[in-house]
Every structure is written in C-alpha cells, then in structure tokens.
Amino acid sequence: MTIAAKTNVRILNELGTDLLIHCKSKDDDLGSHVIPFEGSYGWSFNPNFFLTTLFYCHMRWAGHHDEYFNVYDAKRDAFRCYSDCVVAVLQPAICLYDPKIKDYTPCFGWDQKANATTSGEKLRKN
C-alpha cells in the first residue's frame, strides 16, 4: 500500500459542549475554530514521503483544562486510516476511527494522550 496522495482529517465534537481548537503542523497554521457539539471540522493535505507529517491541535472546552493531541501522525496514521482519518473528541478520551473494523479504536484517555505517539515522544506544545 502506498501513502495517500491527499489525506483528509476530520475532528468530531462529542463533548456535549462547544470545542475550541487550534491546529498546526510544522508548515501550516490552520487557525482557531469553534466546533459545536455534534459538529465537525476538517482539512486536507498531502503527507510527505518520509512519514514525518504531523498535525497537532490545542483543544479547550468548558470546565476542562487545555489539552493537546497529535490528531494526525503519519507514522501512526498513514496506513491505519489511509486517506480519511476521523478523530472523535469525548469527555473521557480522544478516539481514532479505524476503517478496517468500523469502530473507534484506539482511544486515549486525556491522562494517557502521550501514548498516542508512535515514537513515545511528548506531544508538541507551541
């Protein structure tokens, strides 16, 4: 299987309240966006050949601390979700959709989110 020429990422808000996100990569700043409950936000890009493409998001919602998460990490996602990657944001966890089994797995509790990177490195905070 080859890397998708164009990859789509979509973030779903399942928190029960509005979600404020600000997503970035090394080269692109996608700006701040408010995703209403049960709404979504998405974008498309071309991942690089070396599997180093990474998009991370700063997320905030009512009654919760600020959180960061690598919503697309090519090392983790290029062959898992291929060209359509869906991330669901919930109160207890953030979950990645696996199209092979048609379910959200893996999920990462907000206290476990550092485990969401394949390299074991800390999440980027900028």
Automatic annotation (TrEMBL):
Which keywords has UniProt assigned to this entry? Secreted, Self-incompatibility, Signal
Identify the InterPro entries for this entry.
Self-incomp_S1 (IPR010264)
Q: Which GO terms describe its biological process?
A: rejection of self pollen
Q: Where in the cell is it found?
A: Secreted
Look up the signal peptide feature and give its range.
none
An example of a Pfam family matching this protein is: Self-incomp_S1
PANTHER family, alphabetically? Answer: PTHR31232, S-PROTEIN HOMOLOG 29-RELATED
This protein's name: S-protein homolog
